[in-house]
C-alpha cells in the first residue's frame, strides 16, 4: 500500500472541495483532493449560474475571480410572472446588492485551473474511498486507483463528495439526524445556443406549471419547465419543449423567444435535504454532502460556499492560532445558514410550482401570495435579501 501524508484530505473534486483546497493553499495548508470521476466528467455537469456576493468574494479570496470578473455579468433584479402578469424584484434597490451570473461549470473550471497552476494534487478515478478513525486525532483515508491501494494520513478530512458520496454515511447512523422533503415534480432543462429572451431571469408560475428563463451568456440560454417526477427526456423533443415553454411564459415573452436546437437536455429531481451534525470528530461535511436544495432559489453552490467559508476559517484558526473554536462551532454555524437557505428554497418552490394534489384553495393562496409579493415592498425586500444571499 502506497502511503502519503497531508494536513487536510478533501474527498470530492466538485466546487466545494476545490474551493476549500484553493483557500487552504492561500495560507500554506497542504491538502489532497480525491475525486472518483474524471476531470472531464466533473466539468461536464451543467448547473445553475447565479452567484451570491459572498460566493464572489470567496472566489476572489481564493484568487480565482479573474475570468468571472471578465466574463460574468451582474443582475440587479429578476422578473416574476403569473399568467401574463409580470413584475420585477429590484435586488440592488432593495438590498444594495446585485447577483453575479456566471456558470457553475465555469467556476469549477477556474478552480481546477488555479489548482493546477499551484501544483495542487488531485487524484482522479479514486475508487473505494474510505474514511478511517475520523473520531480520533489521527484519521486516515484509503482508496484504490486501478489495482493499487493507497493510504493518506491527515489531520482532518473534508467530506465534499456530494449527496451520493461516502462522507455523510461515514458518520454512524445513531449520530446522524436526516431531514428530507421530496417534491412531486422535476425540472426539464434545456441549454440552447440562442440569445436569452430577456436580460434578467424570469420565474414563471402558470396554470400549466413552473418555468424559468435563464442564461449563461449573450449567446447561451438556459430554460426549464416543471415536469412530472417520472418524466423522461425522450418524451420531450425540442419542438414540444419550446411549445410548452411558450404556453407557460407571458405572451409578450413567448413572442420574443428565440428557439433553437438543444445542446443539452436533462431532467433533475427536486429535493430538500439536511443532515445534522455536519461534523463527526475530524470529519467535516461541506456542500451537497450535507444538504440539498431544490434549484428554484439557486442556493446549492452558494450554500456550499458558506460551508467552505466557515470550515476554512476554522482550519485557519487551528493552524495559525492553535485555536479550535471555529472547528468546534463549524456545524452549528454552517447549519444556521443552511436552514435559512433551505427555507427560502422551499418557500420559492412552494410559491412557483403547481402541485398535483393542490386544492383550489391552495391555488388561491399561491395567487394571493404572488399578488402580495407584487404589491408589498417589505415582502419584496425579504425575498431580495434571501435571493442575493443572507450574511455569513
Ligand atoms: N469518492 C470521491 N469523490 C466522490 C465520491 C467518492 N466516494 N462520491 C462523489 N464524489 C465526487 C463527485 O464525483 C463530485 O465530483 O464528489 C464531487 C461532489 O461534487 P458536487 O456533487 O458538485 O457537490 P459540491 O462540490 O458540494 O457542490 C455543491 O455545486 O455541483 C453543484 O449541485 C451542486 O449546487 C451544488 C454545489
Ligand atoms: C440556471 O441558470 O441554471 C438557474 C438559474 C436560477 C435558478 C436555477 C437555475 O434558480
Strand content: 25-35%
Helical fraction equals 25-40%
Average of per-residue pLDDT values: 97
The CATH class of the domain at 2-72 and 102-180 and 271-348: Alpha Beta
CATH superfamily of the domain at 2-72 and 102-180 and 271-348: FAD/NAD(P)-binding domain
Strand order of the largest sheet: 7-6-15-16-17-14-18-21
Structural class from helices and strands?
alpha/beta
SS field, number of helical segments? 12
From the 3D coordinates, which CATH architecture of the domain at 2-72 and 102-180 and 271-348 would you assign? 3-Layer(bba) Sandwich
> Which ions, cofactors or small ligands are bound in this entry?
adenosine-5-diphosphoribose, P-hydroxybenzoic acid
Uncertain residue segments: none
Describe the main β-sheet briefly.
Answer: 8 strands, mixed
User: CATH topology of the domain at 2-72 and 102-180 and 271-348, anyone?
Assistant: FAD/NAD(P)-binding domain
- The count of DSSP E runs of length 2 or more, i.e. the number of strands, is 21
What would your notes on this structure say?
The protein contains twelve helices and 21 strands. It has 392 residues and is of the alpha/beta class. The protein has a domain at 2-72 and 102-180 and 271-348: FAD/NAD(P)-binding domain, CATH 3.50.50. Strands 7-6-15-16-17-14-18-21 form an eight-stranded mixed sheet. It has a six-stranded mixed sheet with strand order 9-3-2-13-20-19, with helices on one face. Strands 1-12-11-10 form a four-stranded mixed sheet, with no helix packed on it. The protein is globular. The model has no long low-confidence stretch (mean pLDDT 97). The structure holds adenosine-5-diphosphoribose and P-hydroxybenzoic acid (PHB). P-hydroxybenzoic acid (PHB) binds at residues 48-50, 201, 214, 222, 295-298.
